Amino acid sequence: MNPVEILGLVAGCLTTAAFVPQAWRTVRTGSARDFSAAMLVLFVAGIGLWLAYGLLAGIAVVTAANVATLALTLPILWVKIREHLRSRAGTSP
């Protein structure tokens, strides 16, 4: 692995790891109230595109980091959507 790949690996690990505490808290509490729905949708879409880029370009570090980040952010988005649907239906969590 060359220095540029190592740099990408470290960057991917750090940015992905940043979502671990938030994903854990969101799933544990069942609340994503403080998240903007628009931000989450845009972020997940961007991660999906980065994942596609990594796959198409054959860049393992980009692919792996974005698979992990997507796995951490999709549950947050799901909780946000569930909250929205419940609030529209007038039910509590």
Major pleated sheet: none
CATH architecture: Up-down Bundle
Kindly state the mean pLDDT as a whole number?
91
The CATH topology annotation reads as Monooxygenase
Low-confidence stretches: none
Tell me the structural class: mainly alpha
Distance between the termini: 47 Å
How many H/I helices?
4
The quaternary state of the protein chains shown equals single chain
> What sort of overall outline do the alpha carbons produce when their principal axes are compared?
elongated
Order of helices and strands: HHHH
The percent range for helix content is over 70%
Record keyword descriptors for this entry.
single chain, 93 residues, mainly alpha, Monooxygenase, 4 helices, 82% helix
Give a brief outline of the structure.
α1 runs parallel beside α4 (about 60-90), α2 (about 20-30) runs parallel beside α4 (about 60-90) and α3 runs antiparallel to α4 (about 60-90). The protein is mostly helical.
